[in-house]
Specification:
This protein is of the alpha/beta class. Helices cover 42% and strands 15% of the residues. It has one domain (5-280): Alpha-Beta Barrel (TIM Barrel), CATH 3.20.20.150. It has helices at residues 18-28, 49-63, 92-112, 130-151, 168-178, 190-196, 201-208, 237-247, 264-280; strands at 5-9, 32-36, 66-70, 117-119, 155-157, 184-189, 212-217, 219-221, 224-228, 252-255. The strands form 2 sheets. It has an 8-stranded parallel sheet with strand order 3-2-1-10-7-6-5-4. Strand 8 and strand 9 (224-228) form a beta hairpin.
Length: 293
């Protein structure tokens, strides 16, 4: 068994200043933060990114928080197209904008000593055959993988329901398209496994373990892609945590509640309490955090 470290995603704390969010998470007993690069939290498109990143690095060090970089901001590149433009956009110039954002995210991750940089494929555009989309995705990600390799940081792709890369099997197809680079790793969303994968969540965790660099967690119902606070779905959270500990996973396990920022501080408190209780039910798991405040 291994120590498990819990984090909380800033996409669920968008009503807080980033400095306040980091202080809150440290006070609650979290060991890390999943930092979504967005206009309200370390905007990747605004001037002086390196200077602002250095400020965040000091805050992280002061609070003793590890960090993973997430790139799922809804409108950071376009005010009208959610998650657009994507790595699958028919327009090469539009794809290049997403690639450039991800390369910048890798630089931010390197400057912050991040455990991983997260990304996803995007939706299959209308009229684009799937067989044409996979080489397009691989081509758009190649500069990002090269940047991650040079920086020594994992690029952790997330299978996302409804997107081209939506399952563990699809992740392995991308690995094959890119020639299985060592820097290409996996973000496993535990709720997505419960929602979409044919196998039980613990089996998904075991199968994903060799490539796992980042984990997201929340409650969810089978067949419904809706991130829910713990206790409102049907997830076997204890089973998922036991499987993660048994595989030796030592990255961050980040609570992912992007539609609940209106209640972010309270849900951050409730989530760490729930996860700590779940750890208490495991026979030999190490406790990663003190009891919540």
């Amino acid at each position: 068994m291994t120590e498990l470290r819990f984090a909380y995603g800033t996409n669920g704390l968008t009503d807080l200043r980033l400095s306040d969010a980091l202080a809150l998470l440290a006070d609650l007993g979290y060991r890390g933060v999943a930092l979504t690069l967005d206009h309200m939290h370390l905007d990747p498109c605004a001037p002086d990114l390196a200077r602002r990143t250095a400020d965040v690095a000091r805050d992280l060090e002061r609070h003793g928080l590890a960090v993973a970089i997430e790139t799922g901001a809804r409108y950071v590149l376009s005010p009208t197209a959610k998650h657009g433009p994507s790595l699958l956009d028919p327009d090469p110039a539009a794809r290049a904008r997403r690639t450039a954002l991800l390369v910048d995210a890798v630089r931010v991750g390197a400057d912050l000593g991040a455990t991983a940089v997260h990304c996803f494929s995007g939706h299959l555009p209308p009229g684009t055959p799937e067989d044409a989309a996979w080489p397009r995705l691989a081509d758009a990600l190649t500069p990002v993988v090269e940047a991650a390799t040079a920086a020594g940081i994992p690029l952790a792709v997330e299978p996302e329901p409804g997107m081209l890369l939506d399952t563990l099997a699809a992740f392995h197809r991308l690995r094959a398209e890119l020639g299985d680079p060592d820097a290409l790793r996996l973000t496993l969303d535990i709720g997505h496994c419960h929602c979409l994968e044919p196998d039980p969540v613990p089996d998904c965790v075991t199968a994903a373990a060799p490539w796992l660099a980042h984990v997201q967690i929340e409650d969810m119902r089978r067949g419904v892609h809706e991130h829910l606070p713990f206790g409102e779905g049907e997830m076997d959270v204890e089973g998922a945590l036991a499987a993660l500990a048994a595989t030796g996973y030592d990255g961050l396990i980040s609570v992912e509640l992007p539609r609940h920022s209106h209640a972010g501080p309270d849900l951050a408190r409730r989530s760490i309490a729930f996860l700590t209780r779940a750890l208490d039910q495991l026979p030999t798991a190490s406790r990663e955090a003190p009891a919540p405040c």
